Amino acid sequence: MQGSNGNTGLEIAPAEGKLGVMLVGLGAVSTTFIAGVESVRRGLNRPIGSITQMSTIRLGKRTDHTTPLVKDFVSLAALEDLEFAAWDPIPDDAYESAKTCGVLKPEDVDPLADFLRGIRPMPAVFDKRYVKKLDGTNVKSAENKLELAEQLREDIRRFKEEKGCDRLVMVWAASTEVFMEPHEVHATVDSFEKAMAENHDAIAPSMVYAYAALKEGLPFANGAPNLTVDVPAMLELADEAGMPVCGKDFKTGQTLMKTILAPGLKARMLGLSGWFSTNILGNRDGEVLDDPESFKTKEESKLGVLEHILQPELYPELYGNIYHKVRINYYPPRGDNKEGWDSVDLFGWMGYPMQIKIDFLARDSILAAPIVLDLALFLDLAARAGFHGIQEWLSFFFKSPQVAPGLYPEHDLFIQQWKLKNTLRWLMGEEQITHLGTEYYADYR
Fold it and tell me: pLDDT band at residue 299, thresholds of 50, 70 and 90?
């Protein structure tokens, strides 16, 4: 594959045939994603919010005026080639679930009813101990977690054959599990499999799905803050399978705002005294997070953002004494319409105080759905390019980006975007953009 600058890009297998997107969870995020893709395919809407579909990428110098769409620059699966499957403990099909979740208006869901009714969730690997606020009847049973993983692997093979898919990806779009610490059983694939056979409590349902995906040769994205693929056993398995993984926790509302605003404050060297964040939402996610153990998992994901962006160890006078508080409140009347309030106390020249107030109202799943699409397409690209293990270049999409052991995550949205697009340029043998340019530089950048 030849880039315009003469460098040779990687040999990337073509995106031919069907790509199956297997979703863990058929709730608000998944049904909004599926309905949105089908709506675009029917010409009823545009894929707004999707980097793969709507964003351009600059190639070469600014004076070249070469800015193709990302989807026209790299080899991505076409929306027309996507097939969908899901697991969920609640047996409602995608149409019934979308109506229940209430993210989309009837006039947007009803025209797609014939398609959505055809997507029925497979029985889920579900254990109420890990998601205490949910229950369901559409659940697998087995002697142990290793057998449950085998059932998932059978589901994967059956779906691939029935739909005639050439490739598959798996995305966790289900609820936040209770907070878990890494355990010794997570150290190796052997110890992990032994623990699964023994029904060890340190093996959460999300890990069972990730294990099944990697054993079947599927890339895996973790859209929740769960401890899932970020343990040594899973990274070992990803290397063995030659499959890419990424996570964790889709970056949607309040944290998205933080990763946009905090880099700007730091760029101007404005000090920060405190950042108070609170949310209300009433969907299934809000109900799950009403449990303190699940909330702790989410809290850990959200709290690390400011620390990593602002680097208090480098700028102790500006960011060494920040009071950062995060709250999530379950409020059923709002449904999926999440509202996030932020009160930011900062200081500037001569220590004079300032304040910023943010009130962000949004349907959480409207922000998450295009992330699911982009991750599915980019993970498939990564697999066809021979990438395996942690895909840090996809950090742009996550609240708590997964990185290799010993590295700190990059949370600055703009650095993340730069890294993502430069990775795509490198894949295609194009020169990476550094934005270096001075009056002494002959070829203005």
Answer: low
Residue 102, H or E segment:
none
DSSP string of 177-221, one letter each residue: PPP----GGGSSHHHHHHHHHTT-TT--HHHHHHHHHHHTT--EE
Domain 18-250+366-427 has CATH 3.50.4.10: no
For residue 440, the model assigns a pLDDT of 46
Q: For the chain, first and last CA: distance in Å?
A: 25
- Spatial strand order in the sheet of 353-363: 323-330, 271-281, 337-347, 353-363
Q: Which residue has the tokens 């709506």?
A: 39
What CA–CA distance (Å, rounded) separates 298 from 178? 9
Beta bridge partners of 325: 276
**Residue closest to 288 by CA, chosen among 119, 203, 173:** 173
In angstroms, rounded to a whole number, what is the distance separating the alpha carbons of residues 415 and 321? 25
- Read off the pLDDT of residues 176-221 as tens digits, 9 standing for 90 and up: 999 999 999 999 999 999 999 999 999 999 999 999 999 999 999 9
Question: What SS3 class is residue 271?
Answer: strand
Task: Encode pLDDT of 154-174 as tens digits.
Answer: 999 999 999 999 999 999 999
Distance CA 103, CA 93 (A): 15
pLDDT of 61 higher than 80: yes
Where are the chain's structural domains?
Answer: 18-250+366-427, 254-363
The amino acid sitting at 33 is F
Q: How many CA atoms lie within 13 A of 152 on its CB side?
A: 31
H or E segment to which residue 251 belongs: none
**Fold of domain 254-363:** Dihydrodipicolinate Reductase; domain 2 (3.30.360)
Closest alpha carbon to 371 in 396, 403, 340: 396
Question: pTM (2 decimals)?
Answer: 0.92
- Joined tokens for residue 197: 């056979």
Backbone angles phi, psi at 237, to 5 degrees: -65, -40
- The DSSP code for 402 is -
